[in-house]
Amino acid sequence: MTDIFRIIPITATTTPAVLDVLRSPDVPRSEEPFIADTLRRPLRDLRISVTDRCNLRCTYCMPREVFDKNHVFLPRAELLSFEEIERLARSFIGLGVQKIRLTGGEPLLRRNIEQLIAMLARLHTPAGKPLEITLTTNAVLLSQQAQSLKDAGLSRLSVSLDGLSDEIFRRMSDSEVPVKTVLDGIAAAQRVGFTPVKVNMVVKRGANDHEVIPMAEHFRNSGIVLRFIEYMDVGSTNGWRMDDVVTAREILEQLASHYPIRQIAPNYIGEVAERWRYIDGSGEIGVIASITQAFCHECTRARLSTDGKLYTCLFATNGLDLRAPLREGATIQTLTTLIADHWQQRNDRYSQLRQAATEPMITVTSSPKKIEMSYIGG
Ligand code: SAM
Ligand code: SF4
Ligand code: SF4
Question: From the CA of 354, how far away is ligand 3's center (Å)?
Answer without folding.
Answer: 11
